[in-house]
């Protein structure tokens, strides 16, 4: 716990018990489990977190509340001002067309923006770094996605998803310290206590790195419980380079302890972008609903004899196996393009974006492991990760601004 969190805890103890209707962002993660709040996560592993207990409408309502809070409290753009503005919606590459349509409905119908432009994260990241082509690897908290972009056009056949990310590295850090018996707090549970997870997250961001050899560091950890004085522990963090290695060796990450990827409640071909495809998807969805006795996508009970979350083979094949590491996924993605000149170009223009991209030593590790993962019969001898022009987690937002400025210039 940092000093800022310690002060926050003291303030909370002195406040009267008055509860707001909902709380968003980091403040929500600091609420003790004993308080009468329900923690909702509308996104899970890069998808809308839709299930029998968390309906599509509830997910969209929660996303609306988060965006409305940010616009009103952080940007000072109230609901009365929004019809005067247009919005840029930067959507993750992990979403299907139907999910994008739902998010766009939130922007236009609920937030009341005048108009909106939709752009994929991979294209926005390319523009944000000032390039038109590259192999974009978005390394987020719960999922790693990648896609190749050629002259401003995303090539869907190169898309890959790895169902792990920065959060799994954070949990792996705790697992390593517990195995090494260097962690003093036996009751630490990042799955149940958001404060425990935040503490581990800060340690990961500050001390985890990708370097050869044994890496150790010493830190002071503050622990404060309600009604008790603050305790300070001096901890020797061992093998801090092991958790980030889970990017290349997913077996290091205890994935079996955590929730799997959410299953889609519909099926749409990634290539279908026309209005007819939405109509056809609606008919398929209605068919699923009709086959579910007393069931609906709004979260009501579902008959066990029918499953509205049917997979098709294409969606199964579209997901990389968990055993596949980052280097193998990048190589497979680029080599799926037939032309050798394009392959060489993309291997020399890999871009790492997202919060995990801040890991020390990651660039050198990716270059080395991708180069060694390329088959010897391929005519590629150069791998380069391009430098980001700003913080990797903000590249997409800059790219969204760049794309809309180009649209305005064209008009």
From TrEMBL:
Query: One Pfam family from the UniProt entry?
Result: Actin
> Which protein family is it in?
Belongs to the actin family.
**Protein name from the UniProt record:** Actin-related protein 8
Q: Which InterPro entries match?
A: Actin, ATPase_NBD
């Amino acid at each position: 716990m940092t000093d800022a969190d310690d002060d926050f805890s003291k303030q909370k103890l002195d406040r009267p018990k008055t509860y707001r209707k909902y709380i968003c962002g980091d403040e929500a993660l600091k609420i003790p489990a004993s308080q009468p709040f329900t923690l909702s996560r509308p996104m899970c592993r890069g998808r809308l977190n839709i299930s029998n207990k968390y309906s599509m409408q509830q997910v969209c309502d929660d996303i609306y509340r988060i965006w409305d809070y940010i616009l009103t409290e952080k940007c000072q753009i109230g609901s009365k001002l929004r019809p005067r503005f247009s919005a840029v919606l930067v959507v993750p590459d992990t979403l299907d067309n139907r999910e994008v349509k739902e998010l766009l409905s939130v922007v236009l119908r609920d937030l009341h923006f005048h108009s909106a432009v939709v752009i994929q994260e991979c294209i926005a990241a390319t523009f944000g770094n000032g390039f038109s082509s590259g192999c974009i690897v978005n390394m987020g908290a719960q999922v790693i996605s990648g896609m190749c972009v050629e002259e401003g056009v995303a090539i869907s056949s190169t898309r890959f998803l790895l169902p792990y990310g920065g959060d799994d590295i954070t949990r792996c850090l705790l697992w390593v310290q517990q195995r090494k018996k260097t962690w003093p707090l036996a009751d630490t549970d990042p799955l149940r206590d958001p404060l425990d997870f935040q503490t581990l997250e800060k340690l990961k961001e500050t001390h985890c790195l990708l370097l050869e050899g044994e890496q150790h560091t010493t830190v002071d950890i503050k622990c404060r419980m309600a009604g008790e004085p603050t305790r300070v522990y001096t901890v020797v963090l061992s093998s801090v380079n092991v958790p980030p290695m889970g990017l290349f060796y997913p077996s290091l990450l205890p994935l079996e302890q955590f929730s799997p990827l959410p299953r889609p409640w519909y099926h749409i071909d990634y290539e279908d972008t026309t209005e007819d495809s939405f109509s056809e998807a609606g008919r398929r969805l209605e068919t699923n609903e009709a086959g579910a006795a007393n069931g609906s996508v709004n979260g009501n009970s579902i008959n066990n004899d029918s499953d509205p979350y049917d997979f098709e083979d294409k969606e199964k094949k579209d997901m990389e196996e968990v055993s596949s590491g980052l280097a193998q996924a990048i190589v497979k993605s680029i080599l799926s393009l037939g032309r050798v000149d394009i392959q060489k170009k993309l291997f020399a223009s890999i871009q790492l974006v997202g919060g995990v991209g801040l890991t020390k030593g990651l660039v050198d590790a990716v270059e080395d492991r991708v180069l060694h993962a390329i088959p010897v019969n391929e005519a590629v001898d150069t791998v380069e990760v391009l430098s980001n022009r700003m913080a990797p987690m903000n590249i997409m937002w800059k790219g969204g601004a760049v794309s809309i400025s180009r649209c305005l210039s064209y008009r």
